[in-house]
Amino acid sequence: MSLPPGFLDELRTRLSLSQVVGRKVMWDPRKSNQGKGDMWAPCPFHQEKSASFHVDDRKGFYYCFGCHAKGDAISFVRETENVGFMEAVQILAGEAGMPMPERDPKAQEKSDHRTELADVMEQAVKFFRMSLNTGAATDARNYLDRRGLNAEAQARWEIGFAADAWQGLWDHLTAKGVSPDLILAAGLAKPSQKGGKPYDTFRGRIMFPIRDARGRCTAFGGRAMDPNDNAKYLNSPETELFDKGRSLYNHGPARTAAGKGQPLIVAEGYMDVIALAEYGFGASVAPLGTAITENQLQMMWRIAPEPIIALDGDTAGLRAAMRLIDLALPLLEAGQSLRFAIMPDGRDPDDLLKAHGAPALQKLLDEAMPMVNLLWQRETEGKVFDSPERKAGLDKALREKIKLIKDPSIRGHYGQAIKDMRWDLFSPKRGNSGGAPRGGKGGFSGKGFGRKGAGANTWEQTHSFMPTTKSSALVGRAQDDTIDAHLREAVILAALITTPAVIEDFETGIENMLCRDEDHRILRDVILRCVGRDAEVLRENIYSALGPDALDNLLNASHVAIVPCIRTPGDVEKARLTVAEELAKLEAARGLDAEIADAAEDLTGVADEGVTWRLSQAAKAAQQAVRSDTEDSGEFDVGQNGARISRDERSAFETLMDSIRFSKSGPS
């Protein structure tokens, strides 16, 4: 129906928005100024304790700074009462004392028809309730008793019974003068295909009335008593009153309970909702046996900003939860999401409550996982990521899902959460480094970087050498390399911290850093968790992980402070070149470590001539490296990071590598 020009403006003029809103909220007297029409209260659309909901009475608009709900008096009534536009106008017009304009005859006729259908549904509720007390309902009453629903609970939920008769309800309603057309239009009966009398939609079933948010019975759900029935649960067909995809079982009472602070719980079926409510979880709803629709999801969010999906712990329940993720991702808004409480395998909320009581369910609700965690579980569970291609496939699948999120802030937070979980899955094992040598006593920096004694297991301590070989040049060279690696790691970490813009370019290399020192490992982990963040956020995370002194000690260490990119923080090009070069050196040194480890392994037993020969060759190479560094110190290459590299040392390093490789096939 159309309204005459000026009607809505007159309606808004006559009404005080604060009076309309005041029926649903408690104003904050400290922040509100009634004389200026400036009113504040906790938001009625999401649970909060602070007063972030603002009403500007003069302008006639409200806005929540928490959930961003906004609108005027009409939209407020629509959202809080779950009514249509014209119904909201009618409610407000009644409060303002304004007569509604004459309706279009067809619209009036349709409204009257809906009212008549609602009356027929109420008569059906009473008939089914009465039928539950008959002899034909003995098995139904016994079933309800076994499910823990006594007479009082049955009355609270208006549970009834439809006898196994073809025209039981039909005959009752027509005898009371109800038009056959209304019975058919309400979905309570179906026309016969053989030209006979219409027959009841529900037969031999326990009946659950389905009411809308305003309390009108719009449909029924029936549970079959015959275990061989093809449909265990049967809902009313869609009618003028009932749209299954826009309805929730227990909608009205759940909204009231959620408004008092209870969490909104979404279960699968009628019995789950009833059990939850009977055990004190009154803010519980069910989507009427179908997958949750977008409309139902929006209805849930109008009740509570973060519903808890408590689905059955079976395959079907998990599939439903996974499908819901794809539906919800594009609809997410700040402060508006879902959490998931998956029941134990083979259980539903009703089973859990009866077996272990409300505390067990409350524990599951308290531990409900955020939706991002379930998304990660869906994409990784039961899969093996043992190749770059599989890891890339996981990255692509997750990126495609995150792209569905429209809100850029939420999209960013999801990306960061996924990076954190990816790091936990693929990061090198702490304290193991893949079996490679460990080393690094905190304090190599000369400035006291790190905690005293942290990471004190050196390469020598993790290998058992014979006393006669502990002082060999081979072992000494390995210990020197451990120190060199520690210093190079310090330079890399400092460069990344001072210029975090380059972190993303070297994620794989950073992940592969052994970080023999515990503080270096912590710094590496923090850096990888902060990919894409600015320097301030990165430093805050480092302070939280290691305290305020660790970063200063690292950056002021003599071998770090002289590096050009550290002296000019934020120089992306210098930082990129420094990190690339130092990572390459670490990778080359790691190959040498592996060769030394092979030779050292042979030294743990009785030395034979072959091992002695191999050791002598490696010792000569090591000594050559030392000599070249001291005798020809004027011969240098300059690395891209500004550090000097002895050309003879580079040659000696290659000689040492060749001697060890040759020893594997040399004379024994």
From TrEMBL:
The keyword tRNA processing does not apply. Residues 262-344 form the Toprim domain. It catalyses: ssDNA + n NTP = ssDNA/pppN(pN)n-1 hybrid + (n-1) diphosphate. One of its GO terms (molecular function) is zinc ion binding. Residues 428-453 are annotated as: Disordered. Binds 1 zinc ion per monomer. Residues 432-453 have a biased composition (Gly residues). Its EC number is 2.7.7.101. GO terms for cellular component: cytoplasm; DNA-directed RNA polymerase complex; primosome complex. One of its GO terms (biological process) is DNA replication, synthesis of primer. A zinc finger (CHC2-type) spans 43-67. Pfam families: DNAG_N, Toprim_2, Zn_ribbon_DnaG. Contains an N-terminal zinc-binding domain, a central core domain that contains the primase activity, and a C-terminal DnaB-binding domain. Belongs to the DnaG primase family. Monomer. Interacts with DnaB. HAMAP family: DNA_primase_DnaG (MF_00974). RNA polymerase that catalyzes the synthesis of short RNA molecules used as primers for DNA polymerase during DNA replication. This is DNA primase. It comes from Ascidiaceihabitans donghaensis.
